Structure to design on (174 residues):
């Protein structure tokens, strides 16, 4: 009987060794899958922490109604809260970075009295002359607005050129 018990014990040990080997192989596969999932999760977190403008550098967003003053309220709020610009992967672009990127265009009337201040705070790269012609103003009024913009002493020549066409050409890629 002792011989039979030894054989059963050896058979059982062999079975345990085989199961242990299978478990170790499965454990290795599981670890590899965990590593792959962690990489995917990190990639997804990186993707989620980016804005659409970061992920799609060819994306352009235009705001053509409402003038430019609203941007100061947004900038003030964003600049006062560091969390707006901080992501799980570090620091993202600031509002001024987005505005300077050429991906954002804000329509404004060249004779808005606050335009020079907004340009000083946000840069001139995101603003473009936009009239309400033909539904609100006629051609004469639209031309007068352009003339008033050209004659403004509180905007530089380069700011006027950007607002009156340069920024729109870059934004619309013409």
């Amino acid at each position: 009987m002792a011989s039979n018990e030894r054989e059963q014990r050896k058979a059982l040990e062999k079975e345990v060794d085989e199961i242990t080997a299978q478990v170790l192989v499965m454990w290795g596969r599981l670890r590899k899958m965990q590593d792959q999932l962690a990489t995917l999760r990190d990639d997804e977190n990186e993707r989620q922490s980016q804005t659409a403008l970061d992920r799609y550098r060819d994306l352009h967003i235009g705001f053509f109604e409402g003038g430019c003053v609203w941007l100061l309220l947004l900038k003030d709020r964003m600049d006062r809260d560091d969390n707006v610009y901080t992501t799980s992967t570090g620091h993202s672009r600031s509002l001024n970075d987005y505005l300077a990127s050429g991906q954002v265009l804000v329509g404004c009337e060249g004779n808005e009295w606050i335009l020079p201040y907004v340009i000083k705070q946000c840069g001139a790269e995101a603003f473009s002359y936009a009239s309400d012609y033909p539904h609100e103003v006629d051609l004469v009024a639209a031309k007068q607005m352009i003339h008033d913009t050209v004659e403004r002493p509180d905007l530089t020549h380069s700011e006027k050129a950007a607002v009156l066409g340069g920024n729109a050409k870059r934004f619309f890629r013409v």
About this structure: DSSP finds seven helices and five strands in the chain.
